[in-house]
Specification:
535 residues; alpha+beta; five-stranded antiparallel sheet; 16 helices
Length: 535
């Protein structure tokens, strides 16, 4: 039957009439191309099958290494082609013809992976097609791996960071160059540093959420104990560096492997902690971790923070005098958590010695009880200047704080000095020789909690109060909204019932806490922080 078909019913005269024979010819050409692609891919699979039948066992030396390298390159190319095909399947909606309810379920059917992995594959395919076309080219050329793409796929979920990719000075081009020269693990740290630099507040929020996932399980088995869990970057580094230090180098004739020696090191550390022979004022025998802080980051962020504090002080002078706490009396000192994360926007983040970047609150936490030394490098890595390490809190000050506070001052906490640190109110460049009222003892957990949640600590005549910027006061019984009459800063806020358990605190110890830019020379300057972390 050769009757003419008109595909535009609204304007038949304006469109050329296509005959049935022409439609058949077009469909045949398309079908031929599709069949050709399938035949070609089938032929490639047959070739791979032939190689898999005993070929590898006959290889050795340089030929084996080259064969392995070519397979890795082929894998990335296939990954790129696979993502391209999956993006096309999603675009056309042909996945519905396979009986799947969603494109994720279709991917699970054909790849035989879990639904979580299938969703990851679909997300990667969409990102490569819509947002990362240059990375798709690199993947097709075998210059990067699928793992590199997955790192970026997480990042571009944020509209602000997706827009940052367009920045010619620090965007897609720079990340692409890094991806081509780094393995996926190194690239993940590079991207994390890039995210902290351009979205510090978002990074702080993500760090807070991630820290909630920390866990450690110690379960007795029939013939021993099984340990598993998750630690955030800082705590993980502390544990790793401490275990590595204790296990040391194996002695001659030691038959144990590194994992066995690490297990023994953990038991040794626990035994030392149980004996606990530390003396007050001499530190707490903690692990040492090194943090590199770009000089520009410290100087610029602190200068901006100082301007903010001066503006806030001027506002307070113009306003009403601070209101006394209804139970603890007048304010004697105010200890802020640190510097607003937004003031770090555009600044390179501090990093651990393995390159892991730190969010601003973690840097502020480590700076409180650390030794600071200046290291100035040329762009070629030559050391130009090495300053002597000095502490922000002197041993004399530490002994005085221990004698005054005795335990962690956070409401409801009773940890003693052996597991605590001195929270410091004075900026690092002022040398740390501050009045004792500007120092307070906090256990390691609550020290990080104070910085992560931007809590300001007020020392009153009869105790301490802990308040965040969202209008919450932390007490031994939970947290509560600050009433206008009890706000030390004079700001207003509505009263509300206590939020029991906020901050992880139980009812205890209520008698001792609150109740119901510059121009820099062509060198790279860093401040190394050796932080002492209690076991």
């Amino acid at each position: 039957m050769s009757a003419a078909l008109d595909l535009d019913l609204c304007d038949a005269a304006a469109r050329p009439v296509i005959g049935g024979a022409e439609i058949t010819a077009l469909a045949g050409a398309t079908s031929s191309r599709e069949a050709g692609a399938v035949r070609e891919l089938t032929s490639i699979i047959d070739g791979i099958d032939a190689l898999a039948r005993g070929t590898v066992d006959s290889l050795a030396g340089e030929e084996l290494l080259e064969f392995s390298s070519l397979l890795a390159k082929a894998e990335t190319k296939i990954g790129a082609l696979r993502a391209d095909a999956l993006a096309r399947v999603n675009e056309t909606g042909d996945w519905q013809n396979a009986g799947a309810r969603t494109v994720d379920e279709y991917e699970r059917q054909v790849s035989k992976t879990s639904l979580a992995d299938s969703r990851k594959s679909v997300k990667r395919a969409k990102a490569l097609k819509n947002d990362l076309p240059t990375f798709k080219e690199d993947l097709s050329d075998g210059e990067i791996s699928v793992a590199h793409v997955d790192v970026l796929t997480k990042v571009i979920q944020s509209p602000a960071l997706k827009e940052q990719l367009l920045d010619p000075d620090d965007g897609e081009a720079q990340l692409r160059e890094a991806a081509q020269t780094m393995d996926a693990g190194q690239f993940e740290k590079r991207v994390k540093a890039w995210v902290i630099k351009h979205a510090p507040k978002r990074s702080e929020r993500m760090a807070r959420e991630k820290s909630k996932e920390e866990r450690l399980s110690i379960v007795e088995d029939s013939d021993g104990w099984i340990i598993s869990g998750y630690l955030d970057p800082i705590n993980g580094k502390i544990v790793d560096s401490t275990l590595t230090k204790v296990m040391g180098v194996p002695s001659l004739g030691d038959p144990r492997g590194p994992l066995s020696r690490r297990a023994a090191a953990l038991a040794e550390i626990c035994d030392r902690a149980a004996q606990d022979s530390d003396e007050a004022g001499k530190g707490n025998g903690g692990a040492h971790i090194t943090v590199q802080v770009p000089l520009e980051t410290l100087v610029t962020a602190e200068a901006a923070a100082k301007l903010e504090e001066e503006a806030a002080a001027a506002e307070r002078e113009q306003g009403a005098a601070p209101v006394e706490h209804p139970v603890l009396g007048p304010v004697l000192a105010e200890i802020r958590a640190g510097i607003d994360p937004d003031l770090f926007t555009g600044l390179e983040p501090a990093t651990l010695d393995d390159g892991t970047p730190l969010v601003p609150s973690d840097l502020m936490t480590l700076l409180c009880d650390s030794r600071i030394s200046k290291q100035i490098f040329s762009r070629d890595g030559v050391i130009l200047d090495h300053g002597q390490a000095h502490r922000l809190c002197t041993p004399q000050q530490r002994r005085a704080v221990i004698a005054r506070d005795r335990t962690c001052r956070f409401p409801g906490c009773h940890h003693t000095y052996q597991s605590s640190q001195v929270h410091h109110a004075v900026h690092w460049k002022n040398g740390g020789n501050s009045d004792i009222d500007n120092l307070v003892m906090l256990c390691w957990h609550h020290h990080r909690f104070v910085h992560r949640n931007d809590i300001t600590i007020f020392r009153h005549r009869d105790g301490w109060s802990f308040r965040d910027g969202n209008g919450w006061e932390y007490t031994a019984h939970g947290r509560r909204r600050i009433a206008p009459s009890s706000d030390p800063s004079g700001s207003s806020g509505a009263s509300a019932p206590s939020d029991q358990g906020a901050g992880g605190q139980g009812a205890a110890n209520s008698d001792r806490s609150s109740v119901p830019t510059a121009d820099f020379p062509p060198t790279e300057s860093f401040f190394n922080t050796d932080a002492e972390i209690p076991f």
